Amino acid sequence: MKSLTSWFVLMVSIAVLVSSCAKSDDSKTASTDNTTSSSDDSSDNSTSTSDNSSSSSSDNSSSSSSSGVLVAVGNFGTPGVGKIVRSTDNGSSFDNVTSPTGNWLEGVTFGNNTFVAVAHEGNIVRSTDNGSTWDNATISNTTNLSNVTFGNNTFVGVGASGNIVRSTDNGSSWDNATSPTAKYLMNVTFGNNTFVASGQSGNIVRSTDNGSSFDNVTSPTANQVTGVTFGNNTFVGVGDSGNIVRSTDNGSSWDNATSPTANYLKGVTFGNNTFVGVGTSGNIVRSTDNGSSFDNVTSPTEEELNSVTF
Q1: How far apart are the first and last CA of the chain?
Q2: Do residues 292 and 286 lie in contact, with contact meaning Cβ atoms separated by under 8 Å?
Q3: Rounded CA gap, 134 and 82, in Å?
Q4: Residues 6 or more apart in contact with residue 78 via CB below 8 angstroms
């Protein structure tokens, strides 16, 4: 367990939903932030993204560079305040940043020297000065957004009612992408020139035209797929009832992977040739065979784990 915890940082989203780290040289890649792999969560989106070494999470991209800036987003207060905090000392300490929105911020990513966060009511905010100041972006609708990723100089956000939005001008303005579903999309990632989003009822959609349009792919599960990431030319999604799905053909087709748990898995990431997923009851699972099968890892907690990054 010591070697595992030295690789991965687990994040419980009681206070912070997603974190991302600025990468000055990866402007063309990204955060749940995945080249080799961010949402739900989190980390290089260029070749992947939410996220993750070479991984891209669901989570919401996460990356590191000489700038050494990390950004986390969430929600505090009644009425809600879109909370943004940042660190310039590799996460040793964080400071509050003025947020331009009162909406709950759900996901954050990084690309092209720009942080982008998405929120309820379709709200999108961005920062081009390493997270010091933030402005509202021009949005195309007011549907709740749940996550965002970056790849091929394009930001893509997903959310309720199958809503998919994209930006090709560094997050300044956003347009609706063609979506084939009305299901809630909870996470999105990028890898091998392909955007993949997952969500309610096992719905999985993909885009090979830089996020302009998405198509449904046949999913092997009807369970919610909450987290999705990319690594080693493989997409892996996790979700309800311990369900784990994977694709080795750029998201065209998916199979169920062997899962050791029936607990709800909420986040997944990739790094050091290892996929790691986390979920309810402190469940942690890992795969060292490219996502074909997973084993339980001894967990120090029984609390819910919502996101993981590398």
Answers
A1: 15
A2: no
A3: 11
A4: none
Beta carbons of 278 and 305 less than 8 angstroms apart: yes
122: helix, strand or coil? helix
> So what's the pLDDT on residue 75?
83
Q: Is the pLDDT of residue 49 over 80?
A: no
**Pair of tokens at residue 17:** 């939903």
Read off the tokens for 21: 């780290």
CA distance 155 to 177: 11
Percent of the chain with pLDDT over 70: 77
Domain boundaries, the chain: 2-309
Rg, C-alpha atoms of the chain: 17
Q: Looking up tokens 């997923």, which residue turns up?
A: 277
pTM over 0.70: yes
Question: Residue 12: pLDDT above 50?
Answer: no
Question: What pLDDT sits at residue 205?
Answer: 98
The count of C-alpha atoms lying within 13 angstroms of the C-alpha of 286, restricted to the half-sphere facing its C-beta, is 18
Say yes or no: domain 2-309 is CATH 2.60.40.10: no
